Amino acid sequence: xxxxxxxxxxxxxxxxxxxxxxxxxxxxxxxxxxxxxxxxxxxxxxxxxxxxxxxxxxxxxxxxxxxxxxxxxxxxxxxxxxxxxxxxxxxxxxxxxxxxxxxxxxxxxxxxxxxxxxxxxxxxxxxxxxxxxxxxxxxxxxxxxxxxxxxxxxxxxxxxxxxxxxxxxxxxxxxxxxxxxxxxxxxxxxxxxxxxxxxxxxxxxxxxxxxxxxxxxxxxxxxxxxxxxxxxxxx
Length: 235
Ligand code: HEM
Fold this sequence. Notes:
This protein is mainly α. The chain has ten helices and two strands.
């Protein structure tokens, strides 16, 4: 077995996931214009009933958002150099041609299947990937960018709400907050399916609990990372 995720990264991933899912669903329920409801007015009514009205729902949203920001602040203070920086380097190591090829072929393999691709004369082999595959890198970039957008605009909204002369700032914050949440509402179901539920991803899902992946899985899914670890030469 090979270590893939540290204990602190696993803790951050799951506490982040719980906070995110609560914030996303409660955030959508907070939209008071029914025509902007991405799920349904029934969804907003359900949350308002569950938490005890829109005022308490907003309070719960702000409290969970505050806990999420504090967790990340502490994590970044202690693990910036050792974990956050290598993570940022890894996800920004983009190779446009090969990443695009990976996304298109992976998408086709999961939808029409390899047999149909071969019948259409298409190549099915995926370009070799490093620690993260192209899809994970794009999803992680979206998560980091929207997290920053949500945290900054969320903090500004809490502090500027009710102050005279801040109406235009608040309007901008609401728009950016909504766009970041909207982007992640599209990216997250894809991330959850691709990282945890897609065929063959069982070892990746288990690694988000145990921290380890089998060698054979890493060699097949992340051959460039496997090589970087110097494991390929030992075989
Ligand atoms: C029930 C919800 C979720 C499930 C089942 C899930 C599953 C996973 C799994 C299995 C991995 C490991 C992939 C690998 O090792 O190759 C992963 C990584 C990751 N996930 Fe999630 N995830 C969920 C929610 C979220 C949310 C809400 C976010 C962010 C908004 C997120 C962001 C990430 C990021 C940035 C990574 C890479 C981080 C790392 O490797 O340390 N995930 N996820």
